[in-house]
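Duplicate of #3305? Posting structure anyway:
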């Protein structure tokens, strides 16, 4: 027999989802069987797979110990770098200025030193995150940006803030603005680009079309020209949809690729630029809630901005020596 108490970060989950996350050695078929046979109880009473566990609930499992080896805590994050640029922090969230070149999540080439690894190490060393005390929750990122894009990424410290922010992101109640440098001078100084984006997984790139295709997803990218110099333009971008490589591919599709972008630009354009990565930064975030935000209501109407953007000094100085 095993008894555990549901903590605040596990509250609100379906019973079966919580059990699957917490007891990885418990087969799903056996879990459902034990629920039907009343071998799993909440507060001493019979429960069902779709019951929602609440903070303070006592969960009792009359199951062989061999199936109840709790998920071993993963401390790989302790090998991540301590380097972290915090834009804003409170008890619920972190806003981080991700450096260009850093992955947000592990992939098959880089597992340990990622933004989420650095966040978890930071909170662990502050005493705000204890993997051993959590059944299924870990601090998580709400949004993501490309490896070679810099700028603001949101991290949720609690399960409640993660659920709320995921909902706000989905319902477009978070507004994300980017700065970028593109090749050429745009005829329209302000416009909303629309189209369809189709992703090619094998090539790890996307393609933009004006007509709907079977795998195409609707995209909308709003831009405003902030400055022009030496056949380059500084743009502010608002993402109205958030698709993979959307800004890079959408601007390239109208003949204005980002400077330094080796995937959607061309060698002829990038030659002499001197940038090793695309000139793109997620520099401003606005919270604009139109529906209740619960514990995060205090963020409504607030904006956060970073001004340390690596490609702006080169633009202000003049691009003429770089772009031919």
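Output from current build:
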């Amino acid at each position: 027999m095993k008894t555990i108490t549901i903590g605040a970060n596990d509250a609100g989950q379906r019973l079966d989802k919580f059990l699957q996350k917490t007891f990885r050695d418990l087969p799903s078929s056996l879990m459902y069987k034990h629920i039907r046979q009343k071998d799993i109880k909440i507060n001493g009473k019979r429960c069902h797979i779709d019951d929602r566990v609440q903070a303070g609930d006592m969960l009792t499992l009359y199951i062989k110990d061999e199936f109840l080896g709790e998920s071993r805590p993963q401390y790989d994050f302790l090998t991540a770098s301590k380097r972290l640029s915090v834009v804003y922090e409170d008890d619920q969230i972190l806003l981080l200025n991700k450096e260009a070149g850093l992955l947000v999540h592990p992939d098959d080439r880089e597992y340990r030193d990622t933004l989420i690894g650095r966040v978890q190490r930071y909170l662990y060393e502050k005493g705000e995150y204890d993997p051993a005390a959590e059944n299924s929750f870990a601090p998580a990122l709400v949004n993501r940006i490309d490896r070679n894009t810099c700028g603001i990424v949101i991290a949720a410290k609690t399960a409640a803030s993660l659920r709320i922010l995921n909902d706000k992101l989905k319902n477009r109640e978070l507004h994300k603005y980017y700065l970028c440098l593109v090749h050429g001078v745009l005829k329209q100084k302000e416009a909303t680009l629309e189209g369809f984006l189709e992703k090619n997984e094998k090539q790890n790139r996307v393609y933009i079309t004006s007509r709907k295709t079977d795998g195409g997803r609707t995209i909308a990218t709003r831009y405003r020209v902030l400055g022009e110099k030496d056949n380059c333009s500084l743009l502010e971008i608002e993402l109205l949809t958030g698709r993979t490589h959307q800004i890079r591919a959408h601007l390239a599709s109208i003949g204005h690729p980002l400077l330094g972008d080796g995937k959607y630009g061309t060698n002829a354009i990038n030659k002499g630029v001197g940038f090793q990565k695309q000139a793109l930064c997620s520099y401003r975030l606005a919270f604009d809630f139109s529906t209740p935000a619960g514990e995060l209501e205090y963020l409504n109407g607030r904006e956060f901005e970073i001004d340390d953007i690596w490609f702006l000094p080169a633009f202000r100085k003049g691009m003429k020596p770089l772009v031919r």
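Confirmed duplicate; merging threads. The radius of gyration is 23 Å. The chain has a mean pLDDT of 91.
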